[in-house]
Amino acid sequence: MMKNMKSRERFSNGIIYAILSFLSFVWILPIVWLILVSFREEPGAYTAYIFPKSYTLNNYLLLFTDTKLFNYPRWFMNTLIVAIVTCAVSTIIVLLTSYALSRLRFKLRKPMMNVALVLGMFPGFMSMIAVYHILKAFSLTQSLFALVLVYSGGAALGYYISKGFFDTIPKSIDESAMLDGASKNTIFWKITLPLSKPIVVYTILTSFIAPWMDFIFVSVIMKDNYENYTVALGLFQMLSRENIYQYFTRFAAGAVLIAIPITLLFIYMQKYYISGITGGSVKG
Amino acid sequence: MKNTQKFKSLVNKVLNRMSDFFKGFKEGNSVTKGSYFILGLGQLLRGQIFKGSVYLVTQIVFIYFMITSGVSNILGLRTLGTQMQERVWSEERGIFVVSKGDNSMLMLLFGVATIFIVIGFIITYVMSVHGSIQNEKLIISGKKPNNLKQDIQLYLNDKYHVTVLTLPVFLTFLFTIVPLVFMILIAFTNFDRNHQPPGNLFTWVGFENFSAVLWNDPLKSKTFVDLLIWTLVWAVLATVLNYIFGMILALMINKKGIKIKKFWRTIFVITIAVPQFVSLLLMSQLLADLGTLNVILREFGFIETFLPFLSDPNWAKATVIIVNLWVGVPYTMLITSGILMNIPTDLYESAKIDGANAWVQFWKITLPYMLFVTGPYLITQFIGNINNFNVIYLLTRGGPLSLEYFQAGKTDLLVTWLYKLTVNEQNYSFASTIGIFIFLISAFFSLIVFNKTAATQKEEDFQ
Amino acid sequence: MKKLLLAMLMLLMTLSLVACQAEEPVEEVKDVTLKVWGAQEDQEMLTGMIEEFKAANPGTNWTIELGVVGEPDARTKYLEDPEAAADVFAFPNDQVMDLVNAGALYEVTINKDAIVAANIQSAVDSATVDGKLYGFPMTADNGYFMYYDKSVFTEEDVKSLDKMLEVAGAAGKSVFFDVSNGWYIASFFIGAGNKFEMVDGKQVLDFNNETGVKVGEAIKAFTANPAFLTGDDNVLKAGFGTTIAAGVSGTWNAGDISTILGANYGATKLPEYTLGGVATQLGSFAGFKLMGVNSLTMYPEEAFALAEFLTNEANQIKRFEVRKLGPANKNAASNEAVLADVALSALAQQAPFAMSQNSVAGTYWGPAEAFGLALENKDYTMSIQEMLDALVSQAAGE
Known about the structure:
The complex is a heterotrimer. Helix content of chain A is 71%, strand content 0%. Chain A has helices at residues 2-38, 58-65, 72-103, 109-119, 127-137, 144-153, 159-167, 171-179, 184-195, 197-213, 216-222, 231-237, 244-269, 277-283. Chain A is flat and about 70 Å long. The model of chain A is unreliable at 275-284 (pLDDT under 50). By secondary structure, chain B is mostly helical. Chain B has two domains: 11-86 and 94-206, no CATH class; 216-462, MetI-like (MetI-like fold), CATH 1.10.3720. Chain B has a two-stranded antiparallel sheet. Chain B has a two-stranded antiparallel sheet with strand order 3-4. By secondary structure, chain C is of the alpha/beta class. A five-stranded mixed sheet of chain C has the order 2-1-3-17-6. Classes of the chains: A mainly alpha, B mainly alpha, C alpha/beta.
């Protein structure tokens, strides 16, 4: 009996490995192509072949040395700083908001959830101009601080995932803690958060990624303050009609470099993806 | 019947609150009466120095603000500017001296912002008065109002929600709600190419835009309907497919006995670590008619002429959905992974003991659990996909453009169509009007589903 | 007493000395702060020009800031916040109408006649609305023409589009023309005599008249030819010299294409195509870049002076030397080096057949692209007449 089950399990595992390998291959293919382009020596944005005719490290080197037109190092630092700060602020805001909406009961709770759900639905492009002028009224324009504010400002609206997660943590845990005299604040930091590691990881990751990707908001807020551009906007400039032929390979190199901090962060945070945590704590 | 009753009780509640307000004034002692005019008085004089000073400072700042700009902002809302930019010929300087006119757009924006500030102040005012009345009641019954230490305790426990939500709410108002109201109001003006500040003013036109939109000519109607259908189809397919595939992927990786889970997950995360506009740009080149993929397929002899991934309307629609899978599945995989790990293992164990195999376990435990937790997420994803500007625009620009549509292409969503109209014609008021329609439809639909889902109804049970 | 008197006398003398000095009219040095916007590739060049300007005008305390806003973005960036926009900025002529409508540009009245006389007529026309001059012409090279591979075509071949298709086909190569693009496809219609007009803010086209239908047929035949190839700049540059023997594009690609083709680099005006059996010259759009002054500027006279300086003859020549941009200034354009430039002389040959974009509305581009795309994809479900009717009515915004 046992032997049958074991070999069946090995068989199904084998199939799964095969599928996973195939999917990973398909998924990573465009990225591999991007990396190949970043090492390509011939210029041009479009080639009829995949493997470069000659390889070079120049694209990466020039990104950091030839800063006359594209100040990549400065932009990279800008984006890194904004990403770290935004990540910290947004994560705290979102998690606290989700916690409040999940565990605490107060009069405006349902209306707030409905409003938050609905707020993201208006397809308007004028909002960026409005935000820009609001920032200007506070004399905050063209600064990295403004960017952090804007990115974190809308963070609370993404509460639904974390809230859904918090909802599944049994109330009995909270109640036993309250019997021991803990305040809601203590419960959040000492109990709820440690139990929610996977979701915390997800939240940190997505809020860290956002500033690296956005080139629309940055364009409106930074206007002509070239030094304060973020990496996404800067790279986007390389795609202009005049530049794209010469700079496409460098653009690819720049894009690859963006992926590195994000991937590193994720690898570091992976250790929090451990299963069965709540299962254990309730039993105990 | 139920609705009218609900409405009546709501009205009653409001009336009660208002009469309480006035009763408080009549029945309160002199300190309380004073707090109706000077915020924070009821706290300052009763030992709550910190709270009281906060209220008082707020009042002073507010009055200062109103005097310097607030009042003129609100008045400006009525006309949205009367002074047009003027030029006066100056003989001695040889130029037209330009005198600045009113900027209608800014007047609208700041008027709206000021109204919200006024509302915020009124709320603060009511809170201060309410607190003052409460303090008086406490003193009458022989107790003391909270001192600072007790208040902090209160706000960390029973009133934790206030502490925690103040900053997010404030930021949301500032960056989401005020701009949103601003944009909605634009639909009631005639802000378009011919009324562009700073040289021109625009003004209120009431419901003119809406009636213009409703008397559509056939081409615009056809475009609207066709795009609406495609938008809904796209949103459903994108959301559902991404979710299912993500979940399957997460299940596969998460299964007991699969090694190097971290490796698999990292591979997929790398694809979201590259900025979307970069990967989509690559995709649009890979899949172009003469793009790399086609070239390779031809070289290997699989096909004769190129496959029109992006140039044929139907192919393009399929391509867009598949590419969106590539973009979105890593995200759904991460989320579902996180939730999967939180399902109590004892549920599975007792199921196994009862003899359930993997398939049954999935249907009866995993799936309901996932749907419950991610219900709201799915709805928001659906709405988000309705408005998913990025993927469509960056991949196909909404193309292939078609003469059957009014300034639109076959993969255009309503949003991308809107964007093109705005950019090409600068017809902001028209764009806002259509935006309101889209908004009303989305909001109506999702609010109903959201409030009816098992999620919200069984919230308490689940916990 | 005496000491006091002495002290007072000293004080008086000192005071009078000071008073004397104060009364002497010291030259009032005006403090002027200006902001300039230019493309990012121009930053270094502009910085140099600005320094020269400051040196040439010592009587003022200049603070001139340079910001990065590329010409295509000028209108958007301006309208987002007019007050924070630069005092002097560069923009392409197809943004003139929008900027004038929004009251963004300061009407040029100082030295207007000198500017009009110094620059090419079409450049000045593109900057003029209702007889008023709104910008300083800077470059005159935003048009397009035909690049070709000299090893495939002779100078005679490139005079006729049909001949080019024949020769290219025989050599197994293609002729590149981005037909699904309103900017390029207009060349067929302009050459045939169809018109762009703006009436009451609406675009009025006559593309669906008899001539227009013949044009449509000609384009259909062109796109159906096996040697025809479409795509974008990337496709053109990737295939030029190997699979592509000729292509229509503009000066921004001159550098790259000359590198690719090397000794076989050739450029000339657009060829003639066959319209209903008659050889007709292809027309084109002419594009110019202008410098404008912000109507909200605090220092109009100084801004005008700066803009005029940045676009004067010497600086236009410098622009050509540094960035290979064709000048709009008459003298600069007849400069030897400019005339010798292959791309610019091709543009100059095409110039008589080029028209300004001032009467083209934003609603034209979408339908034109759709029309071209249908022909490229050989999608003949609608007849040419039907397609043109749709194009005309959509461009009018109906």
